[in-house]
Amino acid sequence: MNEMVTIPREEYDLLRAAAEDLADLQSYDRAKGALAEGADELLPADYANRLLDGENPLRVYRDLRGLTQAMLAEKAGVNRVTVAEIETGRKQGSVASLRAVADALDVTLDDLTE
């Protein structure tokens, strides 16, 4: 089992680059598959930039879905004040409230908390 093969450095570099390309293609195929299955969605650049700029994820996803705080609260079965307090950072919200809001927005709990 201790067999060893020696190849020129140039050939090794080509094989390594091909392996990296294959890994990239496999990642792309998984991402496209998740989109096709509805397990993932594309986020428009302006909303992605808002998240990257540190804006509250709850507000960003609520805006993306076209919901007011009251509409989201009703859909999630929570108080509108709870939604407002989470959006402004005054409160973190309970796990149950965050889960209900995440379900109403059709996002994961991680999307709202990371």
Automatic annotation (TrEMBL):
Which first-to-last residue range defines the signal peptide?
none
Cellular component terms (Gene Ontology): cytosol
Q: Specify the HTH cro/C1-type domain's residue ranges.
A: 58-112
Q: Does the keyword DNA-binding apply?
A: yes
Keyword field = DNA-binding
Q: Which CDD domains does the entry mention?
A: HTH_XRE
For this protein, the record's InterPro entries field holds: Cro/C1-type_HTH, Lambda_DNA-bd_dom_sf, TransReg_Diox_bact_type
A GO molecular function term, named singly, is:
DNA-binding transcription factor activity
Q: What is this protein called?
A: DNA-binding XRE family transcriptional regulator
